[in-house]
Structure to design on (376 residues):
């Protein structure tokens, strides 16, 4: 028998909503949520469709957050079934977005449906913050909705993001924070010339190598109780004219750092400059900060998640902050407690992305249990 959560997840996966296209997913959510008393507001920013839906005017406000967009499926011939025609094999549903993260959105909606039926006059308020631009540039998605909410003084107390946080089984891992991410484009200048006249050139590749070596082996910090140590990775090096006999005029290097709450971005920028200056380079550097780190401390939201996961699965959850950035980076600065709890993440963005149907039911029960604990 098809459960309501499975049915809704399947309807959502059936829509080809590759970023930033919502492909009508949010309309399905609006119909379901309006039927149980949510007031729905579509916030369109350029080509991105966002949904803010709220039930109740009181606080505290628990907001379920997520995205209807998915990454492209990749080579179709490698999929065992059409990525946009969900198929069930051996109790597992396959399709793009099955884990990241249409199934969690479905689980959130059905959890609310059951909860509201039991508690039509619940405490506080419930909201949905859904975007169609999480996997892309994320410039017109959650960040803009949060700006609009802040501008009218609407505050989220607890944000529960359905990103696939679990490792082996649903609820075994939650994310109560994320590292910050900072990228740099470094251009090292030299003097171009003939390889046969080394005294007339200044080789930017030779100058870059020892400096990059120092940068790469620098110990930024030891991490802390919640964060792994800051990691720096060089992702691109470009230099050269293509000819064997020409020393290039400059070398370009791109690198990225995922950093913890031990640091502020400006400390990383300062230390990088100190290291580069030691090598007496002529250089320019441009930084782009794509997310600040955040950490949700002990409190009602973490407690409710722990308790709900224990109640439904019998498991003790592990709190982690690993992985890249998430839309939590836009919500946390408002002062909200932010937690990510969703399905197993081993197939996300891959060919044959999938979710286990029993685990999907458990996820919906966990969300309902959290609603009971926080607003029941
Ligand atoms: Zn996602």
């Amino acid at each position: 028998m098809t459960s309501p959560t499975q049915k809704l997840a399947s309807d959502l996966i059936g829509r080809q909503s590759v970023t930033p296209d919502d492909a009508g997913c949010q309309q399905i959510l609006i119909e379901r949520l309006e039927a149980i008393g949510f007031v729905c507001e579509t916030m369109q920013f350029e080509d991105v469709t966002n949904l803010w839906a709220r039930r109740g005017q009181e606080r505290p406000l628990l907001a379920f957050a997520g995205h209807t967009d998915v990454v492209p499926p990749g080579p179709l011939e490698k999929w065992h079934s059409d990525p946009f025609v969900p198929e069930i094999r051996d109790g597992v549903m396959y399709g793009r977005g099955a884990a990241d993260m249409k199934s969690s959105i479905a689980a959130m909606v059905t959890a609310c449906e059951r909860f509201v039926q039991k508690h039509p006059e619940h405490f506080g308020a419930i909201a949905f913050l859904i975007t169609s631009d999480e996997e892309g540039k994320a410039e017109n998605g959650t960040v803009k909705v949060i700006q609009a909410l802040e501008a009218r003084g609407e505050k989220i107390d607890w944000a529960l993001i359905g990103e696939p946080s679990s490792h082996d089984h649903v609820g075994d891992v939650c994310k109560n924070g994320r590292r910050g991410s900072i990228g740099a484009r470094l251009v090292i200048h030299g003097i171009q010339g003939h390889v046969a006249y080394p005294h007339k050139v200044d080789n930017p590749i030779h100058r870059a190598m020892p400096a990059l070596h120092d940068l790469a082996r620098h110990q930024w910090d030891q991490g802390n109780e919640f964060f792994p140590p800051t990691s720096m990775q060089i992702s691109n090096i470009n230099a050269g004219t293509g000819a064997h006999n020409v020393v290039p005029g400059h070398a370009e290097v791109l690198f990225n750092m995922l950093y913890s709450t031990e640091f502020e971005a400006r400390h990383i920028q300062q230390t990088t400059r100190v290291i580069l200056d030691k090598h007496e380079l002529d250089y320019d550097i441009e930084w782009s900060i794509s997310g600040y780190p955040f950490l949700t401390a002990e409190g009602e939201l973490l407690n409710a998640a722990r308790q709900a996961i224990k109640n439904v699965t019998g498991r003790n959850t592990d709190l982690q902050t690993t992985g890249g950035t998430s839309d939590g980076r836009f919500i946390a600065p408002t002062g909200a407690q932010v937690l990510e709890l969703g399905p197993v993440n081993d197939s996300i963005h891959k060919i044959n992305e999938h979710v286990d149907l029993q685990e999907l039911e458990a996820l919906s029960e966990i969300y309902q249990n959290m609603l009971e604990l926080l607003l029941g």
